[in-house]
Amino acid sequence: MNILHTSFECYPLAKVGGLADVVGALPKFQHDFGFEVNVIMPFYNTPFITKAKYTVNDEGTIQLGDISYAYEIRELSSPDIGFNTYLVYIPHLLDRPEVYGHKDDIERFIAFQLVVLDWLNLKKGIPDIIHCHDHHTGLIPFLIANAYQFQNLKNIPTVFTIHNAQYQGQISYDKLHYLPDFDKNKIGLLDWDQQINPLAAAIKCAWRVTTVSPSYMEELQNSANGLEGLLRHEKAKCQGVLNGIDTKSWDTETDTMLIENYKISTVVSKRTTNKEWLCNEFNLDSSKPLFCFIGRLVYEKGADLLPDIVEESLQSNDINVLMLGSGNKEVEERLESLKDTFSGRYHMYTGYNERLSHIIYGGADFLLMPSRVEPCGLNQMYALRYGAIPIVRRTGGLKDTVVDIGDNGFGICHNQATVQDVCYSIRRGVALYSDQKKYREIQQEIMKIDHSWNRSANQYVNIYKSLITLT
Ligand code: ADP
Ligand code: GLC
User: Fold this and answer.
1) Which end of the chain is less crowded, N or C, counting CB atoms within 10 A of the terminal residue's CB?
2) What are phi and psi of 136, to 5 degrees?
3) According to CATH, where is 3.40.50.2000 located in the chain?
4) What is the pLDDT of residues 80-118, one digit of tens each?
5) Cβ < 6 A, ligand 2 pocket
6) Interval 130-171: pLDDT, tens
7) Ligand 2, residues 212, 297, 393: which to mutate, most atoms within 8 A of Cβ?
């Protein structure tokens, strides 16, 4: 089977969040199962991509309305990535350091998708499956089915994964001319709320739709940022497949980003070196329990609650709190300003830092995830594997991966995304930490939980196989 993943992110080439981790790991596991797996993504000017070696495989031109864009398909020469990677190079449009946040993002998303399809049209060997990720690639299932130019590709089954339904990539109709000619009777397939909606188009046109946890799939039926009715209507072809993590890269015994490596049998003696490093680096007290947060500072993650959580929990508990993230400027400023008030027990690192995130997973005692919406969440799985007890709100993938200690589980869960609920959970964490015997038992237990893609990658393979038999 020949599988093609199309995505705007893929670790380690370009990462903004969990989408990159998934597209950097799932194909690796599928490749190890013996399939031919290819990933196609934009060529950005990220540090990894600009240093990488590649060969130019194909060239062509696409048309976005009146503007022509020449492109190259650059094949990455990096065998250790674990799958074949093709990079779409469009000078001045895609080759920028930042993945998102440009005023011409819509043009960039559409141009990328047109290149993928134009390239497939040129190629002799076409994939058995095209697996598209998130709204940036959501027009592909529609274009394959309805654009005259891509009729040769019509029989390739498409799978579309919703990583986050909050982001839908809406496009106003004055940009309709960017799309190649298609059967105009089918225009309704693009539409949602009088806009072109790539996420909605993908849900309507992909052969199968998945999302990244079973609970999130259920939640989407009632809350999908306006698409709940559509998801209920398309329910029969939708399935929740829980994400996995790349247990080869995320391994406490070999992770080169950690200060000290450890395993279950040495967790008590060696893991503490990582905590001590964090405490020295950020002026914290290593004798006290360390509660951390890592993530995008956005409403969905409950980021607006964090400043009050920090304030209240530090006032009433003898703990340290360490934050790593960036996003909403007001939240960033409030979290920064608390450094003076709680000097010696609190620190905020504003920004993105992959290495620091690994040391936090490998040194924190607890990891906070007060998410309002969490389609899957990878942080809690990294925390479990690295021995940090997750404190999560019961939602989406968090509900599917963390069981409360009160229910014979291994984490701390709360129902509401409120300051009170999170602070109550932190107090439960403090109580657990004070019983070191129990804390250490749970820590060793969580490190054994298997969240590798071995568990879930097969579910995708079964979906692909069921679609290929239809062709
Ligand atoms: P989302 O994709 O919604 O941001 P996930 O939990 O799926 O959430 O994945 C987030 C990924 O991004 C994890 O690998 C996490 O460690 C990483 N991450 C998030 N924020 C930062 C940051 N500021 N620095 C380093 N890594 C981060
Ligand atoms: C999205 C979601 C996150 C999920 C990730 C990978 O970014 O917000 O919950 O883990 O995609 O699927």
Assistant:
1) C
2) -60, -20
3) 2-245+454-468, 264-450
4) 899 999 999 999 999 999 999 999 999 999 999 999 999
5) 17-19, 22, 163-164, 212, 243, 374-378, 397
6) 999 999 999 999 999 999 999 999 999 999 999 999 999 999
7) 212
